[in-house]
TrEMBL record:
It comes from Ornithinimicrobium kibberense. This is 3-isopropylmalate dehydrogenase. PROSITE patterns: IDH_IMDH. The keyword Manganese applies. Its cofactor is Mg(2+); Mn(2+).
Length: 377
């Protein structure tokens, strides 16, 4: 039987609720598709930090590193000053595990309400490939004259050919198994030096993918196009900070943060990839069992696709979409069912081979991209 090792990092707030519930869905996928996962719980987050003062320890890193993939809940708590846990755990993991890209689908599923008037599912199916290790996220910079009116802050953005090329190459590969369109999103009119590098990488890597059509959009213009004409985009590749910002907007299009999924992908297999819902720890609703588990379940579907379990990935995506379509509200008590109950419904839909497929499943495309990379060695 195919077997995968999974580190489960539930974290803070609603993280444990959605992660545990998503594991019910994983159980259903394993029984239907004939594979199994060996799971290890890794406790990191606010409780662990408050009890020990630790963030991401070398031991936890080594433990996570022994697994094929990481299923991540959320990190962040009002009991710890903002940013400490996020930088010390999430960003540190992305760096240490060389999770080169953050893959964020923006897909409106049938029957899911969107705040964008007139938007239909056929018009909203794109993927953002966010460079995940550098740009403004390198934590480089300095301050002088702090606390005086002469205070100066320098915050650097680093762009290396190496990291940009691996992100752009993945984006081309993904575009070539999708609708064959890749858009570079940047701000080349102002960030001239970084813009030159990104543009040159796009051209150079593009020589290997002659069938992919490319274009370019400034990040501010992307924010204008995204709500009114998302159908312009198939795969969008962008810098770390731009990707962070535009994918929150993307989440709104597809029905809110509760629905949005992401995968932090390590592309050379040297370390595990990590899959996380975008919604974060949501301390305001934590502990009530009202968090929408769709983001966690769709992240699980991406995890399965990345591990090469394409059929299971597509089934989890389809089951999540089917259950989402019947929800009276995107989150909170008004959903009419608890996080766990919803995952039981999703699990039942995974087990049922009559659940309608989602056409052009990104999760299945991920499995195709992973297989292509493996074949090249
Ligand atoms: C995200 C989050 C993180 C980021 C924070 C929590 C550090 O906003 O995953 O989009 O900026 O990448
Ligand atoms: Mg963000």
């Amino acid at each position: 039987m195919r077997s995968h090792t999974l580190a489960v990092l539930p974290g803070d707030g609603v993280g444990p609720e959605v992660t545990r519930a998503a594991l019910t869905v994983l159980d259903a996928a394993e029984s239907r598709f004939g594979f199994d996962t060996r799971r290890t719980d890794v406790p990191l987050g606010a409780d662990h930090h408050l009890a020990t003062g630790e963030l991401l320890t070398d031991e936890a890193t080594a433990e996570l590193d022994r697994h094929d993939a990481i299923l991540f809940g959320a990190i962040g708590s009002p009991r710890v000053p903002p940013g400490i846990l996020e930088r010390g755990i999430i960003l540190e993991l992305r760096r240490r595990m060389e999770q080169a890209i953050n893959l964020r689908p923006v897909r409106l599923y049938e029957g899911v309400p969107t705040p964008i008037a007139g938007l239909t599912p056929e018009r909203c199916d794109l993927v953002v490939v966010r460079e995940n290790t550098e740009g403004a996220y390198v934590a480089q910079g300095s301050s002088v004259h702090v606390g005086t009116p002469a205070q100066v802050a320098v915050q650097e953005s680093v762009n290396t050919w190496y990291a940009v090329e691996r992100a752009v190459d993945f984006a081309y590969r993904l575009a070539s198994v999708r609708r064959g369109r890749l858009t570079l999103c940047h701000k080349t009119n102002v960030l001239v030096e970084a813009g030159k590098l990104w543009t040159a990488v796009m051209e150079s890597v593009g020589e290997r993918y002659p069938d992919v059509e490319t274009d370019y959009v400034h990040v501010d213009a992307l924010c204008m196009h995204l709500p009114v004409s998302p159908e312009r985009f198939d795969v969008v590749v962008t810098d770390n900070l731009f990707g962070d910002i535009v994918t929150d907007l993307g989440a709104v299009l597809q029905g809110g943060l509760g629905v949005a999924a992401s995968g932090n992908l390590n592309l050379d297999g040297a370390h595990p990839s990590m899959f996380e819902p975008i919604h974060g720890s949501a301390p305001d609703i934590a502990g009530r069992g009202w968090a929408n588990p769709a983001g966690a379940c769709l992240s699980l579907a991406m995890l399965l696709g990345h591990l090469g379990e394409g059929e299971a990935a597509a089934a989890v995506e389809a089951a999540t979409a089917a259950v989402l379509a019947g929800l009276p509200a995107p989150g909170g008590e008004a959903m009419g069912a608890s996080t766990q109950e919803l995952c039981e419904r999703i699990a039942a839909a995974v087990a049922d081979d009559a659940t309608p497929e989602v056409p052009g499943s990104l999760m299945a495309q991920l499995a195709a991209v992973a297989a292509g990379r493996a074949a090249e060695g």
